[in-house]
Protein 1
Amino acid sequence: MDAAQIAGLAPALDRYLAHFDDCFGRSEPAAHLRSYVKGQLSDLPRKSVEPMALAADTPPRTLQQFLSGANWDQGLMGQQVRRMVARDHAHPHAVGVFDETTFVKKGDKTPGVKRQYCGASGKIDNCTASVHLAYATPDGFIAQLDAELFVPQDWAADRARCRACGIPDEVVYRPKWTIALGLHERAIANGVRFPWMTFDEGYGLIPAFLHALDDRGQRYVGEVPSNFVGWCKRPAVRPAGSRRPGVRKGPGSRTPQLTGDSAVSRVDDLCRCSAAFTAQPWVRFHVKDTTKGPVVWEVKAARFYLQRDGLPTRAHWLIVARNVLDRSEVKYFVSNAPGGTPLEALLHVGFSRWAVERCFEDQKTELGMDHFEVRTWKSLERHLAITSVTLLFLACTRRELRGEKPAPDGGTDGVPASHRGQRHDRRLVDEPTRQRAAIGTSRATVAIYATQECLGGRMPPAKNVAYA
């Protein structure tokens, strides 16, 4: 992106931000939103309130008050983001992604901060966490639909500490998977439809989470841990009212019951020992290309039955995938997709979690999402809401500029690379010759694409929306 393109974005940004004017009762806070978003989009090395305010020739206390005390509706702002995505960027093969991120912080005043595992630093650290919902389409559009702060149990139990930083009394501890379900529910209420959902094993290990998505009619392909349990062969179930074999007298069971020898098994044991897996060969799939070369996985899949209330569910899929270049790296996926769904489609969804990682990378390296220095719940909520607004503008701009000459600093899709130069090219590119040379085999390898053959049906081009 050259200087002329950057300068030309100002009118488009003003038109875009006008969609959020209804969130404000007065013109002053609406103007502060523009200052905040422009600060996030700027090249400031530190994008906390003070440098952004000074760059906008605004007193820092004014912009701090905009976050902490001004009368405006951040909930309505989030609704508007979701409605705009539903209206302008809906895609029949979009994938929703649940994930969480952490922010390293000093001290003990930031809402929800505590010593816990921190993905940002890769160790136990003092940090706060939030749960996010991203929306990705096969043509490269990625947006963050919603985000919510996680309140640890020890925080929720200390209401005096909560009140000190403005956490409302109605905000209590909720596991991250229940927060994720709430984000999904809000998105659906605002018109967003998810043909598919995916998530990592931190969510997939919770059977109640999987059952809740299934009850909503939501298709998913989610990673599960190796000790997740179920059956590859559906166990026999005695109907309610029947007696156990050999029992002639007495009332029958009040509920359906499993017959004997129907214990569940771990998925790693099933994939290693069950005939449903041992009788089939590994099939190689070219998942993606990165700056380090192609990523190829070997895959097997079979029908799978989860356990719910002690009984088997309807048939699901169990997929095992291992990295061709490092066979110790094994992933397990469970999906509630119907029978006959192409395996390529399931893998495309299961390996789509990079989209939310791209969201976090853009928000942290480009927009300063982790630069906040606020200490109140409302300020942090508003910071996350505004960052979603800014990221959506970035996604729309990237889409409009796609196809133009690449930026001279090595960016892709017509936008510059991140400040830290950490991005990989995540696009699924077919390079079978280089791929076979890299893995040292002549065996045919299937490439995973968001294509008609992969996802079943013609994929219409996504809308190219300009906020004029």
Protein 2
Amino acid sequence: MTAVTPSAPLVVPARPVRSRGELARGYLALTKPRIIELLLVTTVPTMVIADRGLPSLWLILATLVGGSLAAGSANTVNCYVDRDIDAKMHRTQRRPLARDVVTPEEALRFGVGLGVLATLWLGFFVNWLSSALGVGAILFYVFVYTLGMKRTTPQNIVIGGAAGCVPVLIGWASVTGRVTIDAWVLFAIIFFWTPPHFWALAMKFSDDYARAGVPMLPVVAGEAETARQIVLYSWLMVAVSLLLHPVAALGWVYLAAAVVLGAVFLAEAYGLRRRVASAAPTKPMRLFHWSITYLTLLFAAMALDQFV
């Protein structure tokens, strides 16, 4: 008779103990605070233009809090969905899910909870149009961009980037209770700004995206075509930024800023294209960093224009 040897019990590796501070930092990182900061930079000037002056500080605060919650929700769910590719990319492998600081289940619950809170906050403390716009932005970013387009088409950031334009609609609706042509022109400025901004970053990290199987334009079409598309969208962005002057009845401060800032942006875009064509070091982060400065200064000029 053969003796039966009991099998060894299954040993499940213990999860590392997480301090409260580490967990809190992990949850905060899921919301991508640096992206939220950029969204808020566009919201306040939009509210100033819509009000033709300074709205109440309570309305500004309530709108910023609600917008931050909505953006944080979308970014957190994005991290949940993209946790597999984040672990493969050097640029994102320090994110909380890639490092197992936060579990996928915790991240999903947190992201959905932020979305519910954003919906109720904007609805009760701002207005329900702003709330509906916030919900629409979350759903668009998660289902259209993250789940639908990011891994399937090099046009992912063009269409999917529309979610990042919604904060100006929220800001306008928070003041006026509606969305007018002025708000849509502001939307269009950010819509055409997003591809040059993000494609410059994608050029820098194209090896990362290729490794993760994400068809960003530099991976699929190469640097020369990406640089050409950057120039094209830069021209569209500058043209729409000048269109805002008559549409929103802005003054000389904004017009001067739009002309000068736009000229510098175009110079950077063409400089990138020349470097690509000459096989020189492309230095795409020059354009990436300038694009952030451009958007910040352009919207600051919009607000300043109301007080000059």
Protein 3
Amino acid sequence: MRDFALFTVIVMAGTGGELCVSRAMKSVGEATSFRPAEVVRVIRRAFRQPWMWAGIFMMALAFFALLGALSLYNVSFVVPVTALSYVAGAVGGVIFLHEQVSFQRWMGVLLVAIGVALVFFGKN
């Protein structure tokens, strides 16, 4: 049960953070050039977005949960199981960001999910 809870926090907080940052950056817009003044302008606008701060908080939570997982389990187990974030990212992108995901991408997501299940339930 502890395994499930820890990896759920890693996947959900990490993916949630990425979705929040993506939402913030979509509202900020892209940098028109890579001149220092333009980059600073975009960064300032990004840090005024509440979604950015929510994303940073969630990604930090996921990072510290990942550190905990790495202190308990082998990296050969932790890294493949956290790949479930690809599945959560695709689902979150559709629901939260209203993105379109092609059939081929869904098949890729399914393969990742099958791989994660094999690693998680086959651990010693």
Protein 4
Amino acid sequence: MKILLILPAADHLRIRADAPDRVPPRAMLRFSILPLTTVAALTPPTHSVTIVDENVEPVDHDADVDLVGISFMTALADRAYELADAFRARGKIVVAGGYHPTFCPDEAARHFDAVVCGEAEGLWPQLLADLDGGSLKPQYRSDSLPDLAETPVPRRDLVRGNSRHYVTSHAIQTGRGCSHRCRYCSITAFHRGAHRTRPLDQVLDEVGRVPRHFMFVDDNIIADRHYARRLFEAMIPLKKRWVSQCSIEIADDPDLLDLAHRAGCRGLFVGIETTSGRNLAAMDKGFNGSGDQKSRIAAIRRKGIGIIAGMIVGMDNDDRHVFEQTLHFLDSVRIDALQLNIMTPLPGTPLFDQLDRAGRIVDRRWSRYDFRHTVIAPKKMTAGELQAGADWLYSRFYRLDRIVLRSMRALFTLGPLSAVLVFRLNMTYRYDNIREGVKGRNPARKKGFSPFKRLESLCSFVWDKVTGRRTIAAQKHSS
């Protein structure tokens, strides 16, 4: 059987057949598509598998395949349904998997022949066997979470041809899930509040086979501290360099933090989320401890590890001043990069149920559930103010002078490698902002003439000319 696995992309990022070589230079924001390469590895060798990531290559709707598998999250559901309908119209069997179909199986079933709910281990091989036997079921679901010892090494060879478009095609996972139960988090819901680890010897064997620079794509690399300690100790002699995602709690364990750095950690994505203790408590994330965030961030950076901060705006205790307050906080604690999210209730989470019952979900177009659009009615500002303020904060954080200062600081505090990563990542986010026309305004301030804003625009223009970079004129995709 010929199998095609697809990762759909948002409309403004999708590569189309009429311009297959125009891949936006966003490699720093792309990394190995582990779910699909893992599904490919779970596929018996009697079948042939092809992977298409719409972020880097177009989908051939007339491909000579027997089965099409599409994995997607909520923001890509509409595109996934469009693809599924197109392939089914051509007589292909189409299967859904991933977070959104797991939480909305009945909705997905209107477009797909079968829906895999949950993790692929065990379910995907059974689906293939049923299809071979002519007894495909409409839904596949397991009552228990799979044993990660059965998870194979991903088929990285299937994305090797596009590796230049990714910051790395070598992503490794030591465990899945998270034991914290943050109300907005779909990871907790998907993994049923559990955290599981792969056998350490399997992980170390895989680490030994990848290049020096790679990525751990765990939801929280220190979720099991005993396991993390053993992992880091074993990695020290390997002299690897890697980045991952981690709870800010790593700063509370100086020995573990030191081990992470000695093991090669040079950057961590940390979900700081908010500086408000009331917001943290309302989201069941009080362990983040807003009162000591600054000292914890400082401890991580002193160890030579850069921080990409995950921040959320639009929580119930946020008012119009949250945007400039957040920007001041990020500058003062010397955050190296920012992933800013507008509060978005994802299906399957307690937050979605809470806001749905309260009638505060005002937009149900799934394509806008990408954390960059306002889909709720905030409590202490208007939806328009939330959107404008979030855009303003993002564009201000990635202002050119801030990027240069940030990169120079990283050079002296984190080292040359981290400084290069900081600069490239910041410039990629800035590129996205320019490409999408993200500007916004600070709703806490009255409109008026700003000489500094004019100076900023002039500096940006000169920079683009000097570097030979062309500003892309594009309407913001929210229009």
